[in-house]
Amino acid sequence: MSFKLYELTELYQNIWELVGDDEVDVGTLESALSQVEDNIESKSESIAKLVKGIDGDIEALKEEEKRLAKRRKTLENKQNNIKLYLENQLKAMDIDKVKTPLFTISIQKNPPSVHILNEELIPNKYKKTETTISISKKDLLEDLKLGEIIDGAEIKQEKSLRIK
Known about the structure:
By secondary structure, this protein is mostly helical. Helix content is 53%, strand content 4%.
């Protein structure tokens, strides 16, 4: 079965719509791609176009995430400033509680916490030593490349698809 050029375009357009549908799983997408009968060069090029199109969407989403995070942070700061303003007003008037039909606003003590004045004066029984071991893969790779045999490590080189 062979397709006409306009039919191929329609097939890839349908696949693009599947990519944009969050409800479509990977199996459905792979099934749709496998239905395209074309030579490997043309099919590969069309799939690469799909991948590049998705790249554009990913970048746009990342930018939107940054914009929304910045907006959220701005609102959080405004909220904190307004709460601090109210708290300062109540403290200045020596008021611990205000009741309204909608809200009860009060200044309450927080749970006790420790404020360290001088770490060096704290007895050792209160100090914890936490050690973590990490492996420098960069140094390991350099030595393995130089031919050094290191138990528990080896050079591994895989292949992955790149689209430039």
